[in-house]
Amino acid sequence: MQTPCGPRRRLGRSRGDGLPKPGSLSEVRLGRYRQVCYQAGATPGTEAIYSRGGNSRPFSTMVSDMKQKTSMAGTAVLSGLLLILIFSGCSAEQGVALGVTGDAKLNLSLELQPFFVEYLRDLAAPGAHAGVVFDPQAIRAGFEAYRGVRVQDVRVEDDRRLTLSLSVVDLEELAGDELELPELLSFLRSSQTPGSQVSGVIFRIDRGLVQALLGVTPFADSESIRYLLPGENQMVRAEDYTSDLVWIFEEYEESALLEQVLGESAVVLEISVPRDITRVSGPGLERIAPRRARLRLPVIPLLTDVEPGTYRLEF
């Protein structure tokens, strides 16, 4: 049963049908957002009001918008953004092989926790591809809509394991021209001559860029997924954010396991380069072989820390 604040069924004092008690007010606090779900019960024809950050919309309008978005490709529209950012009980390993001209090959292996799969399925609109979390065709089409990106392979196993391989002609061009996030990364080159060989890369990651990335992914246009994120540019304690997420997911899994999974969730990125690495710097970035480095980003700090992390790798 959908509610104005997402798929959570137990809001306020339950009447046995998943809705709050008529005329009652239920608050959900996530970061700076004060979300209010109001189920009016006195006046016939009066509908629920959904309020977020001071902006109110009728419940029917919000749910209609949500269903229109999710029905495009079932829950794949919602879960596809996890290809960029993995959070809420997931494990992911990503590999990037950089070429000397700025080209790259990317590989992603992703496995969702069962409780998060159930959450995504609950968000699916009626009539959408029920039970389908990852839609390979939608994933391929979404990424190949960007110039210079080609999907080599998409495989789905047991509806919660995803393997994706793609190639990018020019990573710097993709970040700057296609994604319009030039501050995300820049290449160091052996000379200033156009087309000269890459000798290093500098990239920057903070909460603002993470949320901007969510905004440009082909599957990110979802109120129900943004509902899980902390408020933009606001101080949010990691402990409070974890507690909020446990509250959201507690009907799908035991709280103790949720806390463990959320605490261990991380994005792991392995970077391979064509020459020996001469320098690495940045929190969580380390050289693991002469031509390979690994970056590990715990997800909860990544989504709550406003301070940017700057990473540099030279080869």
From TrEMBL:
The chain crosses the membrane at residues 70-88. Residues 1-24 are annotated as: Disordered. Keywords: Membrane, Transmembrane, Transmembrane helix. This is Uncharacterized protein.
